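Researcher: Here's the sequence for the chain we discussed earlier.
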Amino acid sequence: MNVIHSLTLAQMRAKPRRTLTTLIGVALSVAMLTAVFAGADSFLDLMRREAVATLGSWHGQVSNTSGAVAQAVAEDDRLNQVALAANWGLDPAEDGSFAGTSLFGVNDAFYELLGVECMEGALPENSRQLAISSELAHLTGWTVGSQVTLDLVRAWSVSGLEADGTPFYHAETGQWSPSPTGLDHTEEVGSARFTVTGVVEMGAFDNGFGVWWPCFTTLDSAPASSRWNVYFTMGTLSNEIWNVMDDIAALQQSQDPEYDAGYNGRATNRSLLLYAGVDEEGSWLLTAFYSLMGVVLAVILIGAVSLARNAFSISLAERTRMLGMLASVGATRAQKRQSVLFEALLLGLAGIPLGLAAGCAGMAVTLPLVSTQVQELFRFHVPLYLSVRPLPLLGAAALAALALLVSALQPAFRASRVSPIDAIRGAGEVRLRPRDLRIGGITRRLFGFTGALALKNCKRSRGRYRSIVFSLALSVVMLLAASGLSYYVDQSVAMRYGRDIPPAHATVGLSDPAVDPAPLLEEMQSLPGAGTCQITGGIDVGMMGSWQVSEQDLSAEARRWLTERSEYRVQMGLEPLASEGAYTVQPTLLVLEDEDFAAWAGRDVTLRTDLLDCVLVTDNYLADLGSFAQLKNALRIEAGFSQTFDQGEGRFADTWRVAALAAEAPANSGDTTLAGDGLTVQLVTSRTVFEAFLARQAAAGRTGSYFWTVLYTDAEDPVQLQESLLEWVGEGDGQENSYRSAGVSDMSSMQSFAFLLRVFCGGFVVLLCLVCAANIHNTVTTGFELRAREYAMLRSVGVTPGGFARMLRLESLFYGIKALCWGLPVGLAVLVAEHRAINLNFYSAFSVPVWGFVLAAAVVFGVCGLSGWAARRRLVRQTIVEAIHTTVL
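Model: Thanks. This is the structure I predict for it:
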């Protein structure tokens, strides 16, 4: 260590508070970067583990395919593991106690990729041994060692009609088959006798609301008529998986005689793929996410550079005399530069590891504290804990080191140019030019002489004044960037998943308009575990007619988005969205209880009951190939618009009319979307109007398709409710002129991830507020303290304590006003950049988070005021003589 380094260390020890403040600033910047990396990585890891626990660890799947296709897929060199499940057949239960049993022959990889675990006994080793699920054991009373006989049949259901009117059938795999009464054709496979060797938990093969309860044996002796499910993992997960899926589709078309694209499904485990960085073709979700995070990280880095640069500039101001003395005894420019860079190196060596440790420690403490709440809220199977890979930590450290180097360069070059005479005279610290201190008449009239003096004090040292204003403006920009991140992510979540999705719902579909729904709805509301409920109803899309609109009938915004998507579809070899320049529009009707309708639409909205009067939702949420858009009044429909519909002879026929417009759909309504064959618009009406419509149809002897739904908005017991819904759906099997369906929201899906992302963004805003507050406090208080001699001189010439206090308060106010004047326009530009980044996948008109601007102003003025108050207290405690004799220039 040379003399320059020794003197630098001595100067750092001589100013312990400044050194500690700078070190804390460096560590805080690194900790924030680490928290962002570690927190995001931990949440992604949570969602990946939950996706594996819920859906399995497979990457791609093809279901209900032939043995030839399954064999070809298994021999594909690009695949790592292949799980096979051949459906031997179905055994309907004769006593009606449950729907029946579906037998699958599986290989060893099946248990691993689907997460099927043996809880009792052992897995089958030959084709005469059987593993049953715990649910099937409960239903049948079978135990390990039981001898069971399955009378197997192969089942089909009608999938369409030939040209001559004869039906053709679709072969069922058994996993999601309809009830026995819904099977249109069966064929005997034969009887087989098995010994139960194990009881398993179904893992990702759990059939949810399916009615066939699966059991497993080996692949030996699988019937030739078996239909196969194939699950596979890639050797290296990449976009190559899309080529694999295309090749499988070609195999099915060429080698599967029963191939039907509507039933022979291919799917990817999208949740798992997404967290591994692979998204579906045509989707810009990952690009948008990484672009948005890039903007945020850029803002964080700029803030870190600003914080560290201010600290080094302050340190340079305090060491100007020392540098001048070094120059007087022959120190070169390079040696003076080394003084600042060596300080940066020491602070980096101490601050970066400290920041990494602090960031990881903070997340390690925080994440387990909220893990239980996260698991209970979303019914996750896996806990939340810190799980960060080395690469993100190295990335945070590298970014912090780069920020520290950039922060120190400009002060280092300034230090190299300090001459002995400049250091002794303080040249460059205060440069007085008349035009720099000129004060406008408005300032003097508004704030008086004290205000004019305060503004002159601010401007007397241009470099210091600009540094303070720059730091404050940068804090404003950072706060707006964080607010924009939270705001645009929330918008994107609403486009993709809607808002306030209920945890469960039950729907009964009817065709007879004379049916009284009250008993059915009462039954649905009284299911065990139901809790708080909301009743809705309606008519599905396609049942209320359609009409054509040309591109000229659409808003400019809608034309632009639809044209871009059509061009992209053509590039991918798909049909464009418009047919001969026209789009098909199909309405869908949502019915609310009268009280709910009035609360949503407003008490002044009245509907006629002699026709199907309704409110039209003008905001259109469109989706196409993984891209989403929110368009304002895309169809430019006005109140008074009406349309007739007729479902055919003896079917519903009526006229619906738009009585009023509403921008946002009611909660839980299922936002309007872009259907495969046209645009869907949302109509909303009251129960009174809808029941009058049904009464007219019944009087005319017409029938049609409509439904009533109960939304379980706050279930008392979600597990019990799910079991009740399964039983309720089963009870409705076989009833004529109606159907029943139910669903439980998959809280481990991307909707959960989106909610967690919103929580993360909110936490990020709070954290950034704290960082900005620390930066503002450090900058303002240091600016006041470096001018202690100036303030002492003012007090010595007769400035009263009250006038002195008012002067410092006005200085803080002027700093805040100037910072907002610079920070708000730049922050607005950052919001534009964030909006464009998110618009890669989620298109919407540009809007700004007003609360973000309010927050930025409140933080700047609040912290400036508190910092000025704290600095004033320290200054008034110092006597005039002590302040004038200070060694700080």
